[in-house]
Design goal:
The protein has about 110 residues and is α+β, with helices and mostly antiparallel strands. The protein contains six helices and two strands.
Length: about 110
Amino acid sequence: MRRNAKRHIGRIAGSQTERVVTEILIIGEGYAVDLTPVDTANLINSRYRRITNEQTGTKGVIGYTAEYAAAVHDGGPKNWQKPDAEDQFLRRGFERDGMGDIRAHIRRSYRN
């Protein structure tokens, strides 16, 4: 029993969690892309994904290098050409639209 617990904890604290966090970012990012304003391809093509392992755990970040990304995300001018675009597209992609898929993915990934 103790050997199995150590094995499972080692898996969760190691590469499995890094893979799960990467996949969570991909899921949420997929939803966010649908909501991202696309007046030019600059914003959407400036996306990046970063995974870091810290003392408190594995951390995943999605961001944009476009200088104006934060202003658009936080509710900038609404002269978007994409009808489904929304401000707060990252937050909504992860917390509103993608949450069900993200939770299901976490449950599947750590089931065994």
